[in-house]
Amino acid sequence: MEVVYPQYGGLSRDRRQASVMIVLNLVAIANGSSTTTSTSMTIDVRLRRRDSWRVTEVIIPKDRQRAAKVPDEAKQLLRSRQLSIPREARLDLASGRIDPKLMELMVELSQRWHLGVHVLRTGHPSNVFGTERTSNHTKGRAVDLWALDRIPVIAHDRAPWRDVMEAAAGLGADEIGGPVDIGGPGPPYFTNDVHQDHLHVAFEN
User: Fold this and answer.
1) What percent of the chain has pLDDT over 70?
2) What is the rounded CA–CA span in Å between residue 166 and residue 74?
3) Which of 119, 116, 118, 126 is nearest to 164 (CA)?
4) CA-based Rg of the chain, rounded to a whole angstrom?
5) Is the dihedral of CA 94, 138, 3, 145 positive or negative?
6) Which branch of life, at top level (predicted)?
7) Calpha distance 132→126 (Å, rounded)
């Protein structure tokens, strides 16, 4: 098992509860054989802090069925070499549950940068963490990007996160979180402690 990237899914206001989404690469070796099979999985690890952080729950996603007709934008993204997409996100695309506007935006961004996708819908907390508000990920209208041109977003001084945020806004995204609120108060940009390690690009309206 290999941890590809751990990313904040949410942090409570009192900083005592957190969600960490982790993309794992899993390799299985058959008994008595050198044959291996590999797959990936996105899990949501919930933690609570008292004296120290402790895992309270691990949420493992259920498989989804492919749509009867996979959208053309999804096919383009699934074939592209300009994106790294974990298994859960690939299944989301094939399921037909991702908003066409978001897929079109991803296609456009991927023509300028290599995108490391962390999560689309499956594997992300259903609500904005610590609130009753449904996440745009749950609605199929948000993507989290952990790497840009294969540079982790958390490498703030090297990753082109500012350019990607501006390009996403130019393509109509109206909920864009990252290391810095590059536009000042008000939409489309925002920042907080959770979005220091990835970009959140979504359509709220």
Assistant:
1) 95
2) 23
3) 116
4) 17
5) positive
6) Bacteria
7) 9
Report residue 69 as tokens: 């007709």
Closest CA to 201 of 83, 88, 118, 91: 118
Global pTM value: 0.87
| pLDDT above 80: residue 39 | no
Q: What confidence score (pLDDT) does residue 8 get?
A: 85
Burial 98-136 (b: 16+ CB within 10 A, else e): bbebbbebbbebbeebbbbbbbbbbbbbeebbeeeeebb
Tell whether the model's pLDDT for residue 5 goes beyond 80: yes
189 SS3 class: strand
The domain limits of the chain are: 2-59, 72-202
Closest CA to 21 of 39, 34, 40, 37: 40
Q: Do you find a cis peptide bond into 86, omega within 30 degrees of 0?
A: no
Name the more confident of 105 and 72.
105
Q: Kindly report, residue by residue over 149-180, the tens digit of the pLDDT.
A: 999 999 999 999 999 999 999 999 999 999 99
Question: Does the structural domain 72-202 have CATH classification 3.60.21?
Answer: no
Under 8 Å between Cβ of 126 and 98: no
What average pLDDT does the structure give for the chain? 89
| Phi, psi angle pair for 33, to nearest 5° | -145, 155
pLDDT attached to residue 63: 63
d(CA 75, CA 120): 15
